C-alpha cells in the first residue's frame, strides 16, 4: 500500500498529508481573484463576493453561495453598501459586514433574514476591518473603525455591543489582530508595529511574547488556534513565533526566510497533535512550519483560501478543495513504511488471508505472541476513521473485523459505531451534499448539529434517513426534521392552504413530539392565518395552541383550548387578554359560557378586583353570593352607618335569594350592632363587635340585668343557654343574691340548675382553697 | 437524612433525588454568592427536599422572608426569589426590587435578580411583573416543578393547604392540574401506571388530564418497567365523614392534639426538659416548644405510630424491657470480642433509649387528654353519630358545648358529622344549630357556615331517605368488636369506625367494585377505570405470590389514621396489595375545617 504514503511529507517526527476533497463544481472565470471569500468551518458553505470586472457605477458586485464541493446554492447581485467582510454563523447564516457598520444576515439560500448595526459612531468613521468569530456563546462580530476603536458583539443573537478602550498610539488599523476567548471573556489581541496589546472590556494592556526574536521590527500577521489555546506571530524579519495564547509559554520559533507578509496564516493542529504547526500562505507558496527548523513547502498554482479546522486546514482554490493535516498516529503506525506496529501486522495478515496464503497465520501468530491483538484491532478501527477514501476505510475495517474473530471478549461497540459513523460521513461527503466532515469534527459537532446542517440545506430525505439509520429518538430526530420541512413547506406561497395542510398532516402523521404550533406560527408569520389555524388543529397539546391563537386574535378558540389543557394559568392568561380586548358585556357573556373560566375569574376578582366581582354576581342574578359579598364588605367598613347599610343590602339580596335564614340572621346582626352602639354611647361600655353571647355576658357581669333580659327576649335565646350564661356570669362575680333571685323567678329548671350550682360551688371551693 | 425514603416497596428517594438535582442545577445557573428570598409558605415543603446545608454548598449565604418594602442588605451577587405563582407576591417582589424604592445607589455592587416559581411558572405573573416594569430586571425566570414531595417511605404529599377549598368550594382546578403533572413526573421516573381507577368528579378530571398529557408527550416517554400496577384516585368529598372523626392512632392523635406540619410536631417543652440534664431539673425550663421530626427514620416511631393509642402503653413497656435487657447484656460480655461488639452497638442503643424516652413523654401528654371526661364525651357523641344513633335530633352535647363556648371548630366538626351521618339535617335542626353558632360565636361566621353548606359538609335534608345506614352496612363501616391491641381490621384506627375511603380501596383490591355498584352510586361523582397502553416488552410478569403495588391518591387530603389503615392493609399477610399513598395535603378535622373558614378582617 505504498501509494497511501505517497502524499505524506515529514516534518520533524510527524508527517503531513494533503488530500483532495473535491474537484470544485463551480466554474469561476478568474478563480478566486478579486473575491471576498468566507468559508465556514466544519465543512460549511462558501460565500463569494465578486467585484465587478470594470469598476463602474452601474455594475454591481455579485454575491454567490456554494457548498464545499462548489455546487451553487444562491447567486444574486449585491445591492446594499460596500462590504468589508463576510462570515458564517454557527447556524449556517451568512453575515455581510458593511463599511457603515451594518451587518446583514442571509440564509444559506440567499434569503435576507435581518440586519443589525455595530453602533452609530461607525457610520461616520467606517469599518476598516472586521472579523467573525465563534465562542461558546455563539457567533460574534468584531470591528475596528477609522477612529482606531474596536467594537465587539459576542453573540449576534443576543446583541450587546461593547466598545473597547482606546489603544495608545494607534493610528488607522493595527498591523494585525485577532479575537480571543479566554476565561469566559472575549478579548482582542492586536499588534501595532512590534508592540502587542490585549484589549478587554476595561483596559488595554501591553504584552510581550516570551522569547520573540529581537530582529523583528513589526508583527505583520498573527493567528490563533481553533481552540483559542495557541497563538502564532509572524514578523517582518520572516520569523514565526509559536506559543500559548496567554503569552506565558513559547513553543518554538522558526525562521521561514520569507520576508514578504503572508496573505493568510492559520494553525494546523489536531487533538493530540505531535507538534504545533502553522500553515502560512503567500501568493504562490504554502508553507508548513513546526517545531524543527525544516519546513514543508507546497507551490500553489492558483489563488486560494485557507480555512482552519479542528484537525487541519482546508485549502480552497479555484479548481480544487484540499485538506492539509498532520497524519494521525494510528495511520502512521499502520501505513508508515516498514512499520511493525500491531495494526500494520494485522492489516498484512488480513491481506495474506484474502490471498489464501498461510502467511496470514504467521503474522497473526506474531501479533498474538506479543498479545497485542486487541491493540491491533483498535488501531485499525481508529485509522479507518481518519481515512477519507472509502476503499481504505473498508480495508482497515475488514482487517479489524478479521482480527476480532480471534479475540474472545472484545467489546463490539467501537467497531460497530465506527462503521455507522463512516457510513453517515461518506454519505454527507458525497459530492452532491458537499459537507467534507472528518470523523474528529463529526464527533465534536454531534449528530444533532449535523442533522441541523442538513436541514438548513433542505436535505430533508437524507437527514431523515440518517436519523432512522442511527436510531435517533424520534422527537430529536425524524420529528425535528419533519417539523423543519413543514415550516419550509408553509412558506410556498403558490400552493393553496388546503393542499399544504393536507400534505403536512399526511407526512407528519403520527410522528411523535411534532410541534404543530411552531409550524403554524411560521405560517402565521408568512401571513397565512387560515393555514395556521388549520395546522393548529393537528396540535395535540392544547396548551401550545393558545399563545398563537391569541396572537391571531382567535381568542374564543384560545379560551376553549386553554380550558381543555387544564392549565389554569393559561386560562387566566386568556381571560386577562379577553378582558382587555372585549367590552365588558361581551366579556361577561363569553365567561358565562365557560364555567371553568368564570370560576377562575371570580377567584381572580376576589383577590384583585372586588367591584368586578359584584358586577359578575349581578349579571348572573346570584343573590346569595351578592348577599355574602355585602356581608364581607361590611366587615371591612369602619363606620357603623356604612356597615349597617351594607348589611341592609345583604338582607335585601338574601331575601331575593329566598334565603330566609340568612336574611333573618343579618337583620339580627344589625339589631345587635345598633343595640351595642346605644349601650356604648349611653353607658360607656365597649360592646361593639362582640357576639350576642359575649354581649350578654358583659351585660350580666356589669349588672345591666334589665338590658340583658331584653336582649334575651328580643333574640329569643334558648332558656337553657341563657341560664347557663347567667349562672356563669353571676358566679364569676360572686353575686349570690342575684343568683337566688334568678333561681326563684323561673319556674323550675331545677334539675338543671342543681347540676349547675353544684359545678359552681365546687369551682368556688377550689378557688377558696387556693 | 433520607434513608427512610428508600426502605419502602417503592424507592421514593429517586423522586427526592430528582428534585434535589434540579434544585442544584438551578442554583448553579446563578453563578456567585446568593441570597434567597422565600415565600414563607414554601419553606416547610422545601425542608422535605433539601436542608440548608445543600443550599450553602451552592453559595447561598443569606435567606430572607418575602415581605413588602425594601430588600434587606446583603452583600451577594444574586438575589433569588422562591415564590408560588401568585399575583399578590409579584407585587411584593416588584416593590422589593423597584429602583424607585429608594435603593441607595452605589451601595451594592450590581446584583442579579432571579425568580424561581414553585411549582410552575405562570404567564399571568410574568405579565404582572411586566406591568410593574420590573420583568426586565430578572436574569433568570425559571420554574421548579415540585408537585409531589416524598414525605415518608410510602407517602407523598403536595403540601398544598388550600387544595380542598379550591377544588370543592371555589371550583379552581389549579391543584388538580398540578396533581396530573405530578403524576406524569412520577410516571416518568417509575414507569407508566397501566391501570387507573377513580371515584369522584375531581378524580375524573385528573384522570382525563393524565390521559391527555400522555397523548401529548407520546414518543418522548422513557422505557421503564412499571413500578406501580395501578393508581386509585379518590375525591375527598366521597368520604367527608372520616376526617371529621377524631383519629385514634398514635400518630393521628399527635396530629389532632399538637398538629404535624411538614413532618414536624411542636410539643410542649415541660415533659422533655427533665431528661436532658438530670442535675438541674426545673432550673431553666425551656419555653420554646420542642420541635420533633416524625417519620419512619426513627425505628421506634415507625413501629408504633400506626397503633391504636390504647395499645401504645403496652408497646412502649415492651420496648423498654427489650432495651434495658440489651443494656444488661454488658454483664454477660466476658471476652474482649464480646465487649467490643457491645460497645459497637452502644450508639444505636442509646438512640433507641432516647427515642423511647421521647415517645413515653409524648404518650403521657396525650394520655392526659384522652383520659379526660371532655375527650370521652366528645368521642361518645362521634361514635353515636357514626353508628346512626339519634342523628335526626338536636344533640344535647353539642347544645351544651355551644352554651359553654367550646372552640368553634370542635362544634363545627360535630355538627358536620351529624349532618353527614344523617345525609343532611332537617331544616329546623340545621337552622337551630346555625343560629346558636351565630349568636354565640358571632354573626361573621355566617360565611363559614355558607362555605360548609357549599361543600356539602352541612346540608338540609332534601330527600327523606338517608342512605348513610345502607352505606355503613354494605361497607361494614362500623365494627362492634374492634380489636385495638391486635387489630384484624382497619376499623381499629378509629376504635370501631372503618374509614369509608379505605374500605373502598380494600374492596377494589378484592373482590372489586362491581360488588358494591349500589353503594358507589350513592356516593357523589362518577367511578371509572382506564387503562394505559404500555410499550411492548414492558409488561410485568408477576411472580407467584408477588404483591401488587397500588398508588392511592387522595384529592383534597388524607388523615394519618387513613394512612395507618392503608399501611395495615399493606402488611396483611393475605392482602396481596401494597399501597403507596399520595395526597394533596395531610389533614385532620381541625385543619380541614379551618381551611374552609372565612374570616373577614374586623374593622
TrEMBL record, chain A:
Residues 637-685 form a coiled coil. Gene3D superfamilies: Vps16, C-terminal region (1.10.150.780). One of its GO terms (molecular function) is actin binding. The keyword Protein transport applies. InterPro entries: VPS16, Vps16_C, Vps16_C_sf, Vps16_N. It is found in: Late endosome membrane; Lysosome membrane. One of its GO terms (cellular component) is late endosome membrane. Residues 514-753 form the Vps16 C-terminal domain. The keyword rRNA-binding does not apply. GO terms for biological process: endosomal transport; intracellular protein transport; vacuole fusion, non-autophagic. Residues 5-416 form the Vps16 N-terminal domain. It is a peripheral membrane protein. Keywords: Coiled coil, Endosome, Lysosome, Membrane, Protein transport, Transport. Its main location: membrane. Plays a role in vesicle-mediated protein trafficking to lysosomal compartments including the endocytic membrane transport and autophagic pathways. Believed to act as a core component of the putative HOPS and CORVET endosomal tethering complexes. PANTHER family: VACUOLAR PROTEIN SORTING VPS16, VACUOLAR PROTEIN SORTING-ASSOCIATED PROTEIN 16 HOMOLOG. Belongs to the VPS16 family. Core component of at least two putative endosomal tethering complexes, the homotypic fusion and vacuole protein sorting (HOPS) complex and the class C core vacuole/endosome tethering (CORVET) complex. Their common core is composed of the class C Vps proteins VPS11, VPS16, VPS18 and VPS33A, which in HOPS further associates with VPS39 and VPS41 and in CORVET with VPS8 and TGFBRAP1. Interacts with RAB5C. Interacts with STX17, MON1B. Associates with adapter protein complex 3 (AP-3) and clathrin:AP-3 complexes. This is Vacuolar protein sorting-associated protein 16 homolog. The lineage of its organism: Eukaryota, Metazoa, Chordata, Craniata, Vertebrata.
Automatic annotation (TrEMBL), chain B:
It is a peripheral membrane protein. One of its GO terms (biological process) is protein transport. InterPro entries: Sec-1-like_dom1, Sec-1-like_dom3a, Sec1-like, Sec1-like_dom2, Sec1-like_sf, VPS33_dom3b. It holds the Pfam family Sec1. Keywords: Cytoplasmic vesicle, Endosome, Lysosome, Membrane, Protein transport, Transport. The keyword Transcription regulation does not apply. Plays a role in vesicle-mediated protein trafficking to lysosomal compartments including the endocytic membrane transport and autophagic pathways. Believed to act as a core component of the putative HOPS and CORVET endosomal tethering complexes which are proposed to be involved in the Rab5-to-Rab7 endosome conversion probably implicating MON1A/B, and via binding SNAREs and SNARE complexes to mediate tethering and docking events during SNARE-mediated membrane fusion. PANTHER family: VESICLE PROTEIN SORTING-ASSOCIATED. This is Vacuolar protein sorting-associated protein 33A. It comes from Oncorhynchus mykiss (Rainbow trout).
